[in-house]
Amino acid sequence: MRNRRSADGAMTDACFQARPITPAIGAEITGLDVRRAGAEAQAELNAALARRKVLVLRDQDLSAPDYAAFLRLFGTPVREDLAVDEGHPAEVGAIHIRAGEAQRINFWHMDHSFRELPTRVLSLYAQMLPPAGGDTLFTNLEAAYDGLSEAMKRRIGGLHGHHRMTPTQNTARRYGRDEAAALAKAPPIRHPLVACHAGNARPYLFVNVPIYCRAIAELPTAAGDALLAELYHHVQRPEFGFRLTWRANTLVVWENNRTLHYPVADYFPHERKLWRGVIQATEADRPRAG
Ligand SMILES: [Fe+2]
C-alpha cells in the first residue's frame, strides 16, 4: 500500500489526501480534481468512502456531465426520480427549495430504508446556497452501535425493524400522488436492527426516523416504539457525527445505508439548490443480521 498517515491523522493516498473530519466519521479530500480521476483514484475514493462514510470535496468545478461521470466512480447511477434540469443527464437530480418555500425535511433519516436493498451511495453537489444556514449533519451508525452499552447490545440482538415509506415533501415530486399512496400502503420491509453487509463484518445500528422505521417485529407496539425512540435518540449523539457547512462547489458522497443525515431547515425565505445522485444498490448491500 502506498498510503501513509501523517502526524495530524490525514491519510495520504497515492492520488489525494483524506483528512478525518471527526474521529467517528467524514474525510475532507484534498489534492484531487475529480474530473481527472482515473482507476487508481476511483479505487482510493471507494476505499476512503467505506472507511470514513462521508467524503467532502471542496472547490470542484463540475458541469452536469462531469457530475454524472463522478457518480459513475461509485457504481451505476440511477435515473433520478427528482426533477432533472433541462438538458442534464437523467442521473443528475435537483433538490430545489425555491425562495419563500419552506424546507420541511428537517429530521435525522436514511433514504430508502423501506427498500429490500437500501441505497448505499448518495451524493450531493452545491448549486445555489442561502447566505447562511442549510447545513447538513451526518451520523455514523457503526459508531452508534459501538457506543451502545453491552446490556443494550444483548437486548437488541436478533430483533428486526419494520420499515415503510411515508410521503414527505419530496415524495409527491418523485412518484406522483397515486404511486406515493400505493408505496405508503405496501407491506413493511423487515430489516435486522443490528445489521452488517457482505464483505464488512462491522455491525451497525439500523434505525431510521419513526415515520420510516415504524415498529419492532418481535415486540408489542408500545415496547417497540419506546425502544426505537431510545435508539433514535442515541444515534444523534454528537460524538458519532459532524456538521457540514456547504460552500460553492462543495461535492459530497456518502454511505447512506450506514449513516443518517439531517438537512437543517434554517434558511427560509432563501433559495437552496443541490444536485443529487443515487447509485444503484446491489445484492452486496442487503442488510444481514450482524
Ligand atoms: Fe435524505
Task: Tell me about this structure.
By secondary structure, the chain is of the alpha+beta class. It has one domain (4-281): Double-stranded beta-helix (4-Layer Sandwich), CATH 3.60.130.10. Helices cover 22% and strands 27% of the residues. The protein is built from seven helices and 18 strands. It has helices at 39-52, 64-71, 141-146, 150-156, 171-175, 177-185, 221-235; strands spanning 4-5, 11-12, 17-20, 27-30, 54-57, 93-97, 121-128, 136-140, 160-163, 189-192, 194-197, 200-205, 213-216, 241-244, 251-255, 259-263, 272-278, 288-289. The strands form four sheets. Strands 1-2-3-4-5-15-7-17-6 form a nine-stranded mixed beta sheet, covered by helices on one side. A three-stranded antiparallel beta sheet has the order 14-8-16. A hairpin with a 4-residue loop joins strand 2 and strand 3. It is globular, with a radius of gyration of 19 Å. The two termini are 29 Å apart. The model has no long low-confidence stretch (mean pLDDT 92). Residues 109, 111, 261 line the site of fe (ii) ion.
Write a compact overview of the structure shown.
This protein is of the alpha+beta class and 290 residues long. Helices cover 22% and strands 27% of the residues. The model has no long low-confidence stretch (mean pLDDT 92).
